[in-house]
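Deliverable D4.2, example record:
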Amino acid sequence: VCTVTVEGDCAISYGNDLVIDSASRIPSDRLRALASGVIGAPCTRASLDKVADRLRQTGVFSAVSVVPKEYGEPLRTIAHIMVVDDAPHEVRARAGSQLVGQNFEFRRVVYKVGGSWFWKNPTARADTARIDVDYLRYRREVQLWYSLPWATQNPLKTDIKVYTIRYDQPFVIGSPHVLYEAFQNGMLCSVSGRYDSLWSCITGGLEFVAIGCISEQRARELVFDPRLVNRQIPYAFLEPSALWEQLDNKIDPAEGYRLLASCKALLPFDLSRAVCFKAIVESALYKKIGIGSIAVRLRMGHIFNEDFERVMPIERFYLGGSYSL
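Output generated by the structure prediction step:
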């Protein structure tokens, strides 16, 4: 149990009566640092909720409670932060199916099976290690994750991922025939954080991409250089993104807006190949009208590349061109 003292009526500060018992493996200094985002903030319900939310977002506690109390003579406000470690290991399984098609005509049932294994708090720093395995009709992937929250004034988080992905591009939705196979193997590191309504993230990494199971004629029809078929192409990439949203309900919004901006730079190790830069802006507007609501979504993007046939198909937009989505 961690007890944090709120001195006086004006601001939150941390005194010497911070108590940690065996309910958590995390050292007291680390817990104090994770809750440091409200130091100097007014002692309000909102500031105490901010502490609780930040601790819950780590995902390593089964219970988090922040309860203000009056204590001592003269009376002062004490905020009791109580945390209980979750079970260190967790396994989740998932399975499902979906009807897919086009023009309001269902053509095929696709399936998904997978599972995840979590190791919570392996280094007693509120960190998490995870393995995800998913098998879909057109996609198979294995991902290894490691997440570590920062002990800073604003909540930040580092994610490290190692992954291998195979994707089969069908000719049309629901078709059993494959147009090409794509293979992605790589690793990335991202730093993300949220400040009020703004979420931002910057991701960088290394990826090996290959396109196979496609004839030279089909490659030319896709405006893809046939010399790159069945070759592992290594790329370094950097992708910053930002999300600004004001919604009344994040799961089922009826009022508000969302704005997402993202760009991705791909730099092949062989500089004779084309450097690719892709930018996307997406916005959504929700307006409540009577007992219902109306939603409008707009998405725009552009690929900046002089040699488009050297851009991997999986990095292109859905409709295939450099100006389309």
